[in-house]
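Protein in question reproduced for absentees:

***
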Amino acid sequence: MSNLLTDNPIALQALMNETLFSIDFAVEDSVTSSGFEQATTNSLKAPSEQVPSAQAPEEFIYQGSPEKGILFILRYPDFDYFSPGAEDAFEKSLSAIQLTTADVAVVNLANSHNPNDFKRIMQFFKPTRITLLGVEPASLVLPHIAHNSYMKGKVATVFNTYSFEEMFVDLEKKKAFWLEFKKFMTNE
């Protein structure tokens, strides 16, 4: 079995679940692959000495676009973004208000790469409308916001609602969500 060798930060993130640091570490084995030598030499330098990569990874992993200032924050540990049923419901909800998944940004805080820091979320996405789908405001150090209601801030308005899975099992939650969501998304 051969060793897997890479210096690609995205590949390393997918393969490793811990952050590793190395200081004054030297490779003593003779290396025959020049590609590996280059990667090893670069990766063993102090952070200030490292050659910058062509493109640093984004601070957040998300889908869609933050350009329209509409952000959906969720926490689905078992999926990249939504369960299949929730994704379908999400797309239909957006379609009903003349939006697509390309018009909005969706960030899953269950992804270990994404910071659970509201200030950093605001700085990165620069949203004007934020929908918390099953994410408790307190987990982002926000004041209490009742379900299916919103709070207007200086820059953005935050709408707090249930996850789609919660709405699937309770028709009243789904109705309450839809009535408030339409108002929230159509009012400027």
Q: What stands out?
A: The CA atoms of residues 19 and 98 lie 42 Å apart. The chain has two domains: 1-55, 62-186.
